[in-house]
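step=predict obj=DUF397 domain-containing protein n=62
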Amino acid sequence: MERNVWRTSSRSGSNGQCVEVRDRGVEVDVRDSKAPDAGMLRFVPAAWTAFTATLKAGGLRP
């Protein structure tokens, strides 16, 4: 992932319910693409990697 650039998931549809991610090296930022100025979540890289691996494995389902 290129650093310091906001990216939208390639799996995002056209329904407007997307998140954007930015890798800053020391932290990974996540924000709502519809409200980019409303704030963001910040993850340390290891936590982001664990979170995305859990999602890819089908975890965190209701």
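step=describe
Helices lie at 45-56.
step=end
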